[in-house]
TrEMBL record:
Top-rank taxon: Bacteria
Name under which the protein is recorded: ABC transporter permease
Presence of the UniProt keyword Ligase in the record: no
UniProt keyword Cell inner membrane present: no
Regions crossing the membrane: 28-50, 118-138, 150-175, 208-227, 233-254
Organism of derivation: Paenibacillus amylolyticus
Stretches of the chain forming a coiled coil according to its record: none
């Protein structure tokens, strides 16, 4: 019953955050359009190179588009529901986390709906590239329709993995306070690298992106099975297991980190 009550409060906080953002409808629409254009322009730069050379390390334009779209949509799902985890530093520096400690619910559950983001632009951009990539590969006979529901499953597990990485990085802030530079490595740089096939990178780097910062399990590993038929259905089970393990480990780390939190005293 307590868990149900917490999630009821969580939904109320989300609705409140959405209403506050929709007070400025023009700003919301303009922001969504600009976000979509920025993301699409990033992919178009890669598409122009691939159009010239045909493929990179044996990966076609449609396959790389699939990797790009899965990563974008997984990130969007993570940032929609857990965006403030990525911005924990401001709560630690400004003492705003103290306010959340007074709420009758777990701190993480109170933190996540703060400044809830409706990322329409990213959804449209990622969805368009995903549909285009899938349509191209289906037309060539590379994949079948079964890839569509499996792709939705991969997006969800990918969001969980990205959230877990973000939460673990944010938790380090209980010791270091400043975490923005670290997030550039563990979230931004790692996620950008994983938008492309890991075979492009040195072995040590691809190993790093599959172990210490497991972003390779967000899109690269599932694409090997879904797009190329490498491995078997067990690959999806492994991905689900990785997502569960990452989430459980990051939550335990967060719980431990909370015991080390010291207020700013401001």
């Amino acid at each position: 019953m307590k868990l149900i009550s917490w999630f009821h409060l969580y939904k109320i906080l989300i609705r409140t955050s959405i209403r506050s953002r929709m007070q400025y409808k023009f700003n919301f629409v303009l922001g969504a359009i600009l976000a979509a254009l920025i993301q699409i322009s990033e992919f178009l730069m890669v598409a122009l190179v691939l159009h010239k050379f045909g493929a990179i390390k044996g990966w076609s334009l449609h396959e790389i588009g699939y990797l790009f779209a899965i990563m974008t949509l997984s990130k969007t799902l993570y940032r929609t529901f857990g965006n403030e985890v990525h911005h924990l530093e401001k709560y630690l520096v400004g003492g705003e986390l103290d306010q959340l400690l007074t709420r009758p619910m777990p701190v993480l559950l109170a933190l996540m709906p703060q400044n809830f983001r409706i990322m329409i632009g990213e959804v449209l951009q990622g969805g368009f590239i995903l549909c285009w990539s899938l349509a191209g590969m289906m037309h060539s006979g590379q994949i079948g329709w079964t890839v569509v529901p499996f792709s939705l499953f991969v997006i969800v597990t990918g969001a969980i993995i990205l959230f877990s990485i973000g939460l673990a990085t944010a938790t380090l802030g209980f010791w270091t306070t400043r975490i923005e530079e670290l997030q550039v490595i563990t979230e931004d740089a790692a996620r950008t690298a994983a938008q492309y096939p890991l075979t492009l990178y040195p072995k040590w780097m691809s190993s790093l992106l599959l172990t210490a910062i497991p972003v390779g399990f967000v899109n690269y590993i599932p694409s090997l099975y879904l797009l190329r038929g490498e491995g078997g259905a067990w690959v999806l089970a492994v991905i689900a297991a990785v997502a569960v393990i990452c989430l459980a480990a990051s939550l335990r780390f967060w719980t431990f980190g909370m015991t080390k939190y010291q207020s700013t005293g401001s």
